[in-house]
Every structure is written in structure tokens, then in C-alpha cells.
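Re: the 220-residue chain
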Amino acid sequence: MKHILKFILAVGLVVALATSAGAITAGSIPSGLNNEFIPGVFAGPQIAGYYGGQIYLIAGGATQLTLEYFGAEAGFHNEFNFNGVEYFDHPGGTNIAPNAGSPFSSFNVMANPGLLNFSFDYNNNAGSVVNGLNPDDSAGTAGPNFFVSFNPINAVGGPTSGQFVWIFLDDGGAGPDDNHDDMLVRISVTGGSFSVPEPVTMLLLGLGLIGLAGMRRFRK
């Protein structure tokens, strides 16, 4: 009976974790408005990716990542933080247009596998968009959020994993404009990959691990 209760609790924990991750929605930006980064960095009229993405690092241990800043088009003062340290700062009120695809600045950082610990502070620290709590703004009403892309030149959506992930901030300053050009950051890794797993995928993985653990206990 005790083992059955433990199993039920474990399943409940996995379901709770999967639910808290939130769904991702395939889409593209911008929606009828200009995105300042398209002509300078990407080909095509739109950028494909996902709303509501929470970015995870898949690696065998602590791994070096590269953070790159490609510019911002925002009236707000916005910042990008990783592991609690500020790396990129946009003072607001001016445009830092993309430089033909080259980053303005870059840093190497170390990160452990799992949910990446980064956030955007927007409007002079009035609020933050935190990885792991990034809302799905596919309806254009969620407020500040970021859009995730692993291959921007796709039509809609595209892959959900890769060694390069582009993160497009919408700081909410111009309302629900859906162009997500208030700050652009790219994170890359060579000794692993990034993923935005959907809740169902996480649930199945968790249940599989619980099942393996149960089989091992049964054999003993």
C-alpha cells in the first residue's frame, strides 16, 4: 500500500510540473507590423517560432553557453539577466538596430542542465519576464513576454530544439503589437542543446522514469 501511495504522489508531481510548464503555441512574428530585426538579421517577412516557450538546457553537466546581444527597438529601459547577473542593457528611447547579423556584445557563462535561469527586466525594473513563467501571447493579450525561435526562416513554428535559440522580447510598452523587437538575445551551446518541451512530452518522460524505477524495485 505504501508503494502505491508513493507512486500516486510521484505521478501527481509529474503532472503538476508538466502543467506548470504551460503550453507552447507555434506561430510567427510580427503580426502586421514591422520587426526591426528582420531586414538586418533574417531573410523573409516573418520569424517563425513559439509563444509561451520555456527554455531548457539538455547537457551532461555544467556547460558553457554564449550570450549575444543583437539590439533593441524600445522606448523602455530593458535589461537581460542570466543567473542573476545583468549582461545586456538598453537605455530606452532609442533604437539599437541590428548590425548585419553581428552581435553588439557577447559573454560566455556556465549553466547547469534544466530550466535556464534568465529574465528580462522591463521599463526601469517595473517588472520581469522570467524563463519558466513566460506567458503564451499567441492571442496578443498576455502583456510582456518573449518569443522563442530555433530556426527563424521557417514559415510557422519550426523545430523545438537546437544549439542556437533566439529570444525576442515584447516589453508591452506599445500594447499588444506582436512584433517582439524590444530586445533580441541569442544563446548558443556546443556541448548540448536547448529545448522548449511541451507539457505532454514532459509528462510522458516523467511517467517513463517512474515506470523504470518501479520495475527496478519490483525486480529487487
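The longest strand covers residues 63-74.
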